[in-house]
Structure formats: structure tokens, C-alpha cells
Design goal:
With 105 residues, the chain is an all-beta fold. Helix content is 0%, strand content 44%.
């Protein structure tokens, strides 16, 4: 079992840019914060990545998988073990500060 993610999480791309969820599902909340589903994307700002002389920052993170058994409106919720892949760089996001009350699988 892992903890469910809600809109209060933060994260960081591999290059050091900060990541925040764009929107959770407002129908289910944990401590008043909407739960995140695999449909949720992460907005990444401040990524300092460069390729050669040109900036090539992470812009958006997308999740490929979520919980196997817990869903909101038919969409799997995200767990603290879920991985996000960034566009356009393809690196991952490290998530921090997940809530520590509700678990799922």
C-alpha cells in the first residue's frame, strides 16, 4: 500500500525545476485538497536544462500509471510510488510532501 497524492504535493525534475499539479479531481478530497488521478499533469517551472547552447527545459510531467484498485470516476488515483515522465526531456520528477493519512493500492 502507498499513500494517495493530493494537490498539496510538490516535486522537482531531475534538473532541479519545481513541479506542481495543475488540477486534481474535485469530487474526492483528502484534508480538503482534491485527489490526483493519472489524468493530472504537473507544471514544471524553472528547469535550467540546456542542450548545447540552447535551453531545453522540462515543461510538463505526465503520469503513466496509478493505483490498480482505487479509482475516481473510473480513473486510477495517483500514489506516492507513481512515476511522472517530463515533456520534452523524458526525465522523471521526484515528488515530495505527500499526505500521510490515506493509503491505497
Amino acid at each position: 500500500m502507498a499513500y494517495l497524492l493530493d494537490e498539496t504535493i510538490t516535486g522537482q525534475c531531475t534538473h532541479g525545476g519545481s513541479a506542481r499539479p495543475l488540477a486534481g479531481n474535485p469530487r474526492v478530497k483528502i484534508n480538503g485538497a482534491p485527489v490526483l488521478t493519472v489524468a493530472t499533469q504537473l507544471a514544471i517551472s524553472g528547469c535550467p536544462n540546456v542542450v548545447g547552447p540552447s535551453p531545453f527545459p522540462c515543461v510538463l510531467g505526465a503520469f503513466t500509471a496509478g493505483a490498480a484498485r482505487v479509482k475516481v470516476m473510473g480513473v486510477p488515483v495517483l500514489l506516492d510510488t507513481s512515476q511522472a515522465i517530463n515533456t520534452p526531456t523524458g526525465v522523471t520528477v521526484t515528488l515530495t510532501h505527500p499526505q500521510q493519512r490515506v493509503k491505497g493500492m
